[in-house]
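RECORD TYPE: inverse folding
INPUT: structure tokens
STRUCTURE:
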């Protein structure tokens, strides 16, 4: 049962130029006309020998990466912060072992009304991190400090405003309590995302009125930078809700091309006209109320209580069939692909001669299992919440196209139908006597988990789970490990399925001593999110329901 995370990737019109400000080093700061500060800290850039193909053809596009030397600087402040006139903001950081308490201090210097500066203080040592914002931009929402795991390193980020619509982002690695400069981005608004789906965060920046997209990565001990606009030879590049790269070509954006970004370059997987891509019945999948009701009924009958449906498909008019699949699975069949959903893991046993490949997304990890591409055939396998899924096709549909469909999946209850209604939305169950007994069972089970009390917990678990797990496995579920250790939980009633079944949304949280989520990488699995089932197994002598938690094996 894997963590359920919610990630909404906002559609961005983005881009940048790779040949920006070659051979500039150090920090050059100047006031703009409105009195704000423009901080230019771009370092020397050296172009690589890789050249981008023309993007006029529907093919893969290699990326031109350039070394990026602007990493900022750090120096030890003799005498600490004696030059500070006032402290604007203090933010605690987390060292990797959780034993230190370094903090970032943003402050105004004496006799300087142009800039705000940052320092990292750790014990008696204070390190100058440079100018981080314009002097007027001292509001809390204009200055952010955050821990993160960047380029596979323990790091932190300082982002400050330097103009009405401009910011500078400074990234530092934290090594044994000492800050080391990683990267400075001052050519647009910088954010972190796993744009190439390899499980590690990269930096993406957008700049300009007609935004240009730059991607920064770490390679061979240094930062590299590339422009997706330059590689794709277009002014308009966006990141779709599914995490794919979308390039727009032609007059008035007549042609759309979709790519997955990989370390080797951009892999093209589909092209559409603007009308096709924006149509409500071509790439976007329309659903009728009858189809949504059928999916819900079939899912409940098969006890797949958290079904998912794709928002995007593969170029055709759509209709969906929901029916029982093999081994009690729910099968959704579309014209070009099918999605199988189950309460148990669908992955086949590993065998030789089979290709295994993983792609990482914020709320799931997709694993491709199949024959080599030259022989075709295979499926994506992953889990969302308490549901295990696979997606495949008997037709000549590429795995990249199928991954786009997989990335568009949303819970059925969040689906908006073609007529604008949301009939599958879940309403909380009515508070009845039976609901209270069902709630008690799930609450007692979760409390026993949080307190690592396996004997108390087993009293509330159904017999099927006990029969499928050895006593040592049952104990291990409740006892867990010393670090991370069980900490607490969130519980809410979800819906009533029938007279003997209630569903609850349950998230069980683990905690690492002294560590924020970002330290452990992407994604960090701190809370196992379930749609959990409470089942009425009988009644007491007084006629009250006896409820138990039905866990998946």
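DESIGNED SEQUENCE:
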């Amino acid at each position: 049962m894997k963590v359920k995370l919610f990630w909404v990737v906002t559609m961005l019109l983005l881009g940048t130029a790779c040949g920006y400000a070659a051979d500039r080093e150090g920090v050059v700061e100047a006031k703009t006309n409105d009195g704000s500060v423009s901080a230019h800290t771009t370092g020397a850039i050296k172009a690589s020998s890789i050249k981008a193909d023309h993007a006029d053809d529907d093919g893969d596009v290699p990326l031109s990466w350039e070394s990026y030397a602007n990493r900022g600087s750090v120096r030890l402040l003799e005498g600490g912060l004696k030059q500070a006139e006032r402290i604007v903001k203090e933010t605690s950081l987390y060292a990797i072992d959780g034993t230190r308490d370094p903090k970032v201090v943003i402050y105004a210097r004496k006799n300087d009304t142009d800039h705000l500066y940052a320092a990292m203080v750790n014990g008696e040592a204070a390190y100058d991190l440079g100018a981080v914002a314009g002097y007027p931009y001292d509001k809390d929402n204009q200055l952010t400090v955050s821990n993160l795991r960047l380029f596979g390193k323990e790091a932190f980020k300082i982002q400050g405003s330097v103009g009405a619509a401009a910011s500078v982002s400074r990234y530092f690695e934290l090594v044994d309590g000492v800050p080391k400069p990683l990267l400075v981005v001052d050519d647009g608004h910088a954010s972190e995302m796993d744009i190439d789906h390899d499980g590690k965060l990269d930096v993406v920046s957008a700049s300009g009125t007609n935004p240009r997209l730059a991607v920064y990565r770490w390679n061979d001990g240094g930062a590299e930078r590339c422009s997706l606009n330059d590689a794709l030879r277009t002014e308009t590049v966006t990141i779709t809700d599914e995490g794919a790269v979308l390039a727009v070509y032609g007059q008035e954006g007549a042609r759309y091309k979709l790519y997955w970004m990989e370390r080797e370059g951009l892999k093209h997987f589909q092209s559409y006209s603007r009308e096709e891509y924006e149509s409500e019945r071509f790439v976007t999948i329309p659903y009728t109320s009858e189809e949504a009701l059928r999916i819900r009924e079939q899912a409940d009958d098969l006890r797949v209580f958290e079904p998912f449906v794709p928002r995007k498909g593969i170029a055709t008019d759509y209709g969906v069939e929901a029916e029982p699949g093999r081994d009690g699975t729910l099968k959704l069949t579309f014209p070009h692909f099918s999605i199988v959903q189950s309460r148990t893991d669908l992955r086949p046993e590993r065998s030789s001669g089979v290709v295994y490949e993983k792609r990482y997304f914020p709320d799931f990890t997709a694993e491709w299992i199949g024959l080599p591409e030259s022989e075709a055939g295979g499926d994506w396998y992953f889990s969302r919440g308490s549901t295990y899924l696979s997606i495949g096709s008997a037709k000549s549909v590429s795995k990249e196209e199928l991954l786009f469909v997989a990335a568009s999946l949303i819970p059925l209850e969040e689906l908006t139908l073609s007529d604008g209604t949301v009939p599958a939305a879940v309403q909380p169950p009515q508070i009845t006597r039976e609901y209270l007994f069902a709630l008690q069972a799930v609450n007692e089970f979760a409390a026993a988990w949080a307190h690592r009390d396996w004997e108390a917990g087993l009293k509330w678990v159904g017999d099927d789970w006990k029969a499928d797990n050895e006593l040592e496995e049952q104990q291990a579920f409740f006892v867990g490990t010393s670090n991370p250790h069980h900490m607490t939980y969130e519980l809410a009633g979800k819906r009533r399925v029938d007279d003997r079944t209630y569903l609850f949304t349950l998230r069980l949280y683990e905690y690492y001593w002294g560590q924020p989520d970002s330290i452990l990488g992407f994604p960090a699995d701190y809370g196992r999110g379930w749609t959990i089932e409470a089942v009425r197994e009988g009644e007491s002598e007084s006629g009250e329901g006896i409820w138990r938690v039905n866990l998946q094996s």
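NOTES: The chain has a mean pLDDT of 83.
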